[in-house]
Amino acid sequence: MMGALTPFAASASINLIQDGDFATPVLNPGGYEYGATGTPWNFASLAFNGPAPSGSGVTYLPSAWDGGRSAPPPGTQVAFLQGAGGVLSQTMTGVSAGAYDLTFIDAGRPAVGSSYGGDLTFQVLINGNVVDTLTTVDGQAFAPVTLDVSLINGDNTLEFAGFSANNYNGDDSAFIANVSLTAVPEPATILSGVLMLLPFGASTLRILRRNRAA
Q1: CATH number of the domain residue 41 falls in
Q2: Residue among 83, 109, 78, 105 nearest 174 (CA)
Q3: pLDDT tens, 78-106?
Q4: Rounded distance between C-alpha atoms, residue 131 and residue 126, angstroms
């Protein structure tokens, strides 16, 4: 019976994102790397006016980069956005148009004195269009985020971009991990799955009736 249900379940659970847990590059415990390479993600910094730093990359939590005070999610490595200019993005090819669920977890960089913290506002964009604007706060633990997005046929680009650094001379940062982008099943597909279950429900009912009669 389980074999008959597998295609239905799998069709709605394929993650379009590669390396959503930021496992590459492989870092030593406590390490971090700006502009990380060898990964499907692109890490960049946007030029902006002001003295505050900006950037993006990968860090192994806890690390010196965050004062060693962040509790890591499963997988230990996460992406970071620093300041109102850090950007990380990934382009997916051969995508089918439709509705998708974008999920990830985010956290705020713990403050150390008056040097840096986690009150960073960042935007989530699909193909340059803002899907949502979120703000992490100083020392915020990892929290789940789910967004409804629409993709077009062909290539699509997901982007996380630092938008507004709110404290610490602009040196605010957010952590992002466990990124997933999966198709939302069409109503017809859901109905087909329900119809597939009906014979099994009827069989179970007949078994219960036989057992009760015995």
Answers
A1: 2.60.120.260
A2: 109
A3: 999 998 889 999 999 999 999 999 999 99
A4: 7
CB 82 within 8 A of CB 56: yes
Residue 138 corresponds to which tokens in the numbers above? 């100083």
Which residues lie closer than 8 Å to 73 by C-beta, 6 or more apart? 61, 105, 107, 142, 177, 178
What count of other Cβ atoms lies within 10 Å of the Cβ of residue 49? 5
Is 201 domain-assigned?
Answer: no
Residue 67: give the domain boundaries: 14-183
Q: Is residue 213 part of a domain?
A: no
Phi, psi of 189 (to 5 degrees): -70, -40
Q: What is the pLDDT of residues 34-83, one digit of tens each?
A: 999 999 999 987 755 455 678 899 999 888 777 777 777 878 899 999 98
Question: Position 94: which residue type?
Answer: G
pLDDT value, residue 148 = 97
Domain count, the chain: 1
Domain-located, residue 155:
yes
